[in-house]
Amino acid sequence: MNKMNKKNPLTHSLRTINFAIFLLLTHAIVSSIKATTYTEVTDELGINFSHQDGRTGEYQFTETAGSGVGWLDYNSDGNIDLLIVNGISNNNKIYKNNGTSFTDVTEILLPERNTGKGMGICSADINQDGWVDFLITNYGNDFLYLNNKGKNFVRRNLDPQPQPYQWSTSCSFADLDNDGDLDLYVVRYAKFLLDSNKACQLDNAIGYCNPSAYEGQNDGLYINDGKANFTEVSKDRGIYIGTKDRGYGVIISDIDHDDDMDIYVANDGTQNRLYVNNGKGFFTDNGLYSGTAINQNGTPESSMGIAISDIDRDGFQDLFITHYSMETNTIYQNYGEGNFSDMTHLFGLNQSSYMSMGWGTAFADINNNGFDDLIVANGHIHDFIKKTDARQTYGQLNQIFLNQKGKKLVLQKPNESFALPSKKSSRGLAIADWNNDGKTDLAINNIVDKFEIFKNTDKNTNNWIGIKLIGNKINTSAVGAVVTLKNGEFSQRKEILSGTSFMSHSDLRIIFGLGNTKQPVEISIKWPDGKISSHSIKKHNQYHTLKYPSQT
Amino acid sequence: MFISTPSKLKQLIGIFIILFSAVIAVKLYKNHNATSQEFELNKYRGDNAFKSHHYRLAQNYYEKSLSQNPNQAEATLMAAKSFMRGKYQNFNKSIDYYKKYINHFDGNPPLNLSLVNQLKDVGMHDDLIILSSKTHNNLLKASIFEELDTEKALWHLNQIPLDRHNIEYYLLAARIYSNLHQFDNVIINANKAIDLSGMHKNNYYLLSQAYRNIKEFTKAKTAIQSFQILNLLETENNNEQLLIHLNALIELNKNLIQSNDFNSYYITLLIKTKQLDKVEERLSSIDISSLSSKNKVPILSALNQINAIELARIIYNESDKNQIKADEYIQYCQLVANLKTKNELYTACKQGIEKNPHSAALMYWFAIHLLNIDQKPAAYRYMEDAIVHAPWVNSWIIHLAKLYLIEGDVESAKKVLNQSVTNSQIINQFKLSNSLY
């Protein structure tokens, strides 16, 4: 007995050490479970897609762009479906969301397939029939796909006479001339001739030429006659015509809050454009004066993708632009009246984005705490970059930045962002809540690599509400509507936007994170035609469908 | 007998060993000296190649020099710079050399702002932190921390005494305050920078941003207009058009007329558009001694194009002779080269060589002048030396070879032609046509 009670110091120490190790391991496991925001679920959802671009080692310049991805509820069943753009003809894919898995329905839905190298996608109901349609941009002709009541899509050429070697990238639908229906802006990149490609000597390797080796192509501004017949009018409407701009990204939003849709275009290597709408669909480039054309040092950057959000909840939408490596990604904070200020330093984004090359990007409140966080897809264009700069890699980690109450965006550790962080050369990125659990999920299209869907597995228990808008008859997707949520002292403002990110299109529904608020919230909607409706939402943690108020 | 006298044998062996050692020592010393001269010569060749934008050659010479003596800070830095330039750029090598330079940095050659900016451009922020601990220069420290820690950058900026507030200080201060969104301070510093030099495009952009932030929209617009004009200057090639842009810039900011950078550009354009009366007028209205070499080189280069010796003489006579840099001397040497008489520019050129004894261009142009004033032996010496320092300039090599041939000195002609490191068709053809193989 005595012997039993008497503690052996060695055994005691070992037990203590074991216990400590056990505690440490438990802590590590618990914290890793708790902290990981995204888990890749592509295979288990039944999606088997790898991006292709037909590369043969000749370094065709089109290979640098990759392709986008789009989320759209093509059959209006409340489950958001997936369209993946591919860089070779006839290979875009549509996957139907069954709630817990996806089924490839391309053969049924796309009897007329895409020709050309697939680049981007944007979506909305553009012909007033209540079903979402979409546009696929290409190196080659661009194609509209009109939804036949969820049964299939009918393909139509966007342009009767496209530009020679037309290379379209991002696109966005919005009512640009304030006539109610949805018009279209298509960004175009460079005058690159596929059949006379020349690889360039770069440093100590052969590779893609610098973009400045190619002239830019004119963007397209298309006016809708209401029946999805589009007329290109950029020349007459104040859009830049010339060879300087190599466009990659576009956002259409009422940036200056004057009740019309303005266009922000991200250009690769030259100044970005902020086309301010005069209310009648005529535009003036106010990029330089607004502070959004170049970074605060007065330098144009190699802009790729765009994200927009009211990150500091001051009621104005701020812009975030991704850039080439050795440039920072840039945040332009909107302080009203269409004036912006480069806040990259103050938001702490300088170092975290300098060595990576950003493309697709989106703001989303990934932990539903009421502040929009930031997601960036990265990847270099040169597969040999390590040979020329040992500090850089072709595949790069994607990044999650957590919003610190609108003051800073702090980079999450890779293993806290993604369960198994892997380095790919990512391009298109789009967000959606595919499993309707109120947490924003991701889809990322990687260059000549496996496509990825990431499920939001953040363990937070914050409340949320999801909003789906059904607009008026002319614009059933309610693109351009502004939804403002009032939750006690603070308010959040979100817009329904088509396109965005980099050549991609996200869920048209929006999610408001509420933190631990259990109280009812007030929702105010400014519909695209200016009508305002107010709603008191009592039930949290579910989606609410709000319809355009009837005339009566 | 020899066997019987072993002590003598020992003595002889001893003497032999001593003599042998001495010979070896002399040889080693000679070798060491040769190597020492070689690595220095390769470094100078690298410098000359770099200056004349032959970056591939510069890379080779610097690497050769470093293989002969790896502990050369300046050669290491120049190797890093040369690998960052030209068609045969090698980023990895450049970064490696920069790292070597930073790790062994002992203040010599001293760190400067342009190097800090270069390191920032290539993303060597971690290495810059190492460098910051090795310098006491607060302007450099502030610049290093500009993107890393703005508060720290501001702290270092505030340590700089008032009498050290120069153009670099004001430009950096405007940027740092802009990062901190302290717009009143941006406006103060950006305007001071404009007073000192109105040609920094990005400074106008910062200023316009600051004015917009404090809702001074008219001033913001004026600043952005200046920014746009300076943007146009970068893309415009027509000199008349450039002058029109500069006049438009003065309209927006009358104080520019006091800016040396502006005046340098303006005068250069007046020369290029052959408005020499206005050049003289303008030169007499400014304090030439306050112009930096960087300001004077484009003016002198334009004067060189039209052989305007007298105007160049005015500039030289009124210059602060202690501040003249090699590039400016090259201009004087080129200007004086074809003159048949000596004047002040001869003195300038000679002084240039004394101060920059390894500048191949200075030696060559001085040699040309010496030929013109009939000092052949000295001219040949300078020309040979120029070729030793820049053995890729085939036009010089052929020039000297021709002179030797005129003198009937075939061997010297052959010798000089064989020095060419590029083995070009021109050299071969010259050899062939003059039977010099």
3D architecture notes:
- The complex is a heterodimer of chains A (552) and B (437).
- Chain A is mostly beta strands.
- In chain A, the strands form ten sheets. Chain A has a four-stranded antiparallel beta sheet with strand order 1-30-29-28, with no helix packed on it. A four-stranded antiparallel beta sheet of chain A has the order 2-3-4-5.
- Chain A is globular.
- Chain B has 437 residues and is an all-alpha fold.
- Chain B has four domains: 50-103 and 120-125; 134-256, Alpha Horseshoe (Serine Threonine Protein Phosphatase 5, Tetratricopeptide repeat); 259-390, Alpha Horseshoe (Serine Threonine Protein Phosphatase 5, Tetratricopeptide repeat); 394-437, no CATH class.
- Chain B is 73% helix and 0% strand.
- Chain B contains 24 helices and no strands.
- Chain B starts with 5 loop residues before the first helix and ends with a helix.
- The A-B interface holds A 201, 203-204, 288-289, 291, 294, 296-299, 326, 335, 339, 341-343, 345-346, 350-351, 354-355, 387-391 and B 87-92, 95, 121-123, 125, 147-148, 150, 175, 178-181, 201-206, 209, 212-213, 220-221, 224, 227-228.
Topology:
The complex is a heterodimer of chains A (552) and B (437).
Chain A: H1 2-5, H2 9-35, E1 38-40, E2 69-72, E3 81-84, E4 93-97, E5 102-104, H3 106-109, E6 117-124, E7 133-139, E8 143-148, E9 152-157, E10 168-174, E11 183-188, E12 200-202, E13 205-207, E14 220-224, E15 230-232, E16 247-253, E17 262-267, E18 273-277, E19 283-285, H4 287-290, E20 303-309, E21 318-323, E22 330-334, E23 340-342, H5 350-354, E24 358-364, E25 373-378, H6 385-388, E26 399-404, E27 408-411, H7 414-417, E28 426-432, E29 441-446, E30 452-456, E31 463-470, E32 482-487, E33 490-495, E34 510-515, E35 521-526, E36 532-537, E37 543-547
Parallel strand pairs in A: 31-37
Antiparallel strand pairs in A: 1-30, 2-3, 3-4, 4-5, 6-7, 7-8, 8-9, 10-11, 11-14, 12-13, 14-15, 16-17, 17-18, 18-19, 20-21, 21-22, 22-23, 24-25, 25-26, 26-27, 28-29, 29-30, 31-34, 32-33, 32-35, 35-36
Chain B: H1 6-51, H2 55-68, H3 73-83, H4 91-103, H5 113-121, H6 125-132, H7 138-144, H8 150-158, H9 167-179, H10 183-196, H11 201-213, H12 217-235, H13 239-252, H14 260-272, H15 276-285, H16 293-305, H17 309-318, H18 326-337, H19 344-355, H20 360-372, H21 376-389, H22 394-407, H23 410-417, H24 425-433
Helix pairs in contact in B: 1-2, 1-3, 2-3, 3-4, 5-7, 7-8, 8-9, 9-10, 9-11, 10-11, 11-12, 12-13, 13-14, 14-15, 14-16, 16-17, 16-18, 18-19, 18-20, 19-20, 20-21, 22-23
